[in-house]
Structure formats: structure tokens, C-alpha cells
Amino acid sequence: MVADPVAPGGPVAPGTGWPGDLATAATPVASSAAEVRTLAVGSADLTELTARQSVCRACPRLVSWREEVAATRRKSFRDERYWGRPIPGWGDQAASILIVGLAPAAHGGNRTGRIFTGDRSGDFLFAALHRCGLATLPTSTSAGDGQRLIGVRMAAAVGCAPPENKPTPRERDECAPWLAAELRLIAPTLRVVVCLGGFAWQALWPVLAQAGYPAPRPRPAFKHGAEATVFSGDGVRLLVLGCFHPSQQNTFTGRVTADMVDAVLARARTYAAESSPAAEPNVPIATKSHISRPIA
């Protein structure tokens, strides 16, 4: 992001030239949970979905917080313009791997306008993606930095930065149709979902059901390296992987290491390649089952 000594505060207006902004002044805005559902389900493609999600105003507490942060800004970023809007999914439009996080960081994604971009968690994650051949650059600093994901998309269970990084269950549920629509639109190529942290893991199961992947019962427990397999109605198999979140608390204490994240991403990459539409025929409905086990 280029420093601007007179950077204005407040959210970026749609269609004013922010890198990667797909919304315009004419993009419909969801102002309620019902409107979120309508606009998400009615999105014909990822471009339309991304534009609509990026202007959502359905959760008053989150709208107020993200815009307050964008107006006041952290001292170290006081010369930068903050995005200050919801962070939609981003990455390869024909992704075989979807990475799901909790929510944007107040001074990370909420500042840069791109998920996992501009904070320490993103630094750790993008370095791992690059080592595994899933990102073209080892860093992600801004929405216009040239970074590109390879066969991967990223999304958040909650699209707006929440106070204290803690969205409420209601906010999670009201945001769920955006993520369900993302899953629906990349379903033809999607083979793996990587959940970063327990919040994303728990939030994913009802979203999968909305997108046509009934959750196994009992619901698999979250742990680093957990695996679960679900099937769509036409028998397409989807692998769900658990990974500790690369938060500063986890990485600084050694609860999650680069090798641990690399192992999960390598598993995702290998499985996605082996179960691509060209490599794997549809699985008969009668063979539906699930597993939950750690990565070896």
C-alpha cells in the first residue's frame, strides 16, 4: 500500500479504484439477514458474489466497528487508507482447495481489502502457501501487490473485522450464506476445505449443508490434522482438514509451526490433485461415509 499523508478515514467507496474492488455504486447492498440470503443465493458467479459481499451492511455491530477502525487507524498505518468494508473470498476461480479462516484482522484485511493480507498471520500463511507451490509470492502486503493463488481460494467464516476478534454466533450465522454461495460456485472443481482454527471448523458444517454437503454425524471434533470426508448429493467427495490458526499467539508459542502448516497444505494439494474431476469418477451415493483422523 502506498503511503498517503492525507489519507482520508472511513471505508472505501465502491468503484473508486481500489485494487481488486469488483463492486460499483450500483451493486445491491444487503442490510438484513434476509437480504444476505437473497443476494448470496442470487449471485450468478464469483464476480457478482464478491461484489455483493464486499458492500454488505447486515450486522450493525460489525459495520460500526470496521468503519470506526478505518477512520481512526493504527498509528503505524496512519498515512494509509483503510478498506473498511467486508472482505470477500479471493483467489483462483477454479480452485480445488478452499482455505477458511475466522474473520479479517482489524488492521490486516480490514486495512488492505484482502483476506489474510497485511498482518502476521497472513505473513505466516502465505509463506507456507508459497513453499507448497500454492502461491506465486511468499508475502502478501496489499491488494495490488501481484500475489496470485494457484488452485486455491480463501474466505472467512465472518466477512467483517469483529471487536476483539470475536464475532457473535448470530453474526456468524448471518454471514453464512455468503460462504455457502462461495462453496456452491466453486463446487465443480472444489475437492478440499482447510479450516484454520476451531471457529472456522465449527462454522463450516452448517455452511456445507447449505451448499449441498450434508454433515456427518456425529460431527467430527476439531484438532490439528483432523480429517473428515463428506459427499455432495451427486456423490462428489470433499475432504475437510483441520489446521491450527497461524495467529501470533500460536506461532510465537510454538503451538503451530511452519512444518505443521506445510504438512496440512501438502496433504490438501496431494488430495486435490488425486481427486480432480479428471482423476476421480463420481462416488456412488451408497458408499457415503466419513472419517476423522490425524494426518500421519
Outline type: globular
CATH hierarchy class name of the domain at 87-279: Alpha Beta
**Largest beta-sheet characterization:** 6 strands, mixed
Strand content: 5-15%
CATH topology name of the domain at 87-279, in short, is Uracil-DNA Glycosylase, subunit E
**Gap between N and C termini:** 40 Å
Task: Output the structural class.
Answer: alpha/beta
Output the CATH homologous superfamily of the domain at 87-279. Uracil-DNA glycosylase-like domain
**What radius of gyration results from the CA coordinates?**
18 Å
Strand neighbour order, sheet with most strands: 1-3-2-4-6-5
Order of helices and strands: HHHEEHHEHEHEEHH
What's the pLDDT, averaged over the residues? 91
| Annotation, overall tally of beta strands | 6
* Helix percent band: 25-40%
CATH architect. name of the domain at 87-279 = 3-Layer(aba) Sandwich
Multimerization status: single chain
Per DSSP, the total helix count is 9
Give the uncertain stretches in residue-range form: 1-6, 280-296
Protein architecture, described:
The chain has 9 helices and 6 strands, in the order αααββααβαβαββαα. The protein is of the alpha/beta class. It has a domain at 87-279: Uracil-DNA glycosylase-like domain (Uracil-DNA Glycosylase, subunit E). The protein has a 6-stranded mixed sheet, with helices on both faces. It is globular. The chain starts with 32 loop residues before the first helix and ends in a 22-residue tail after the last helix.
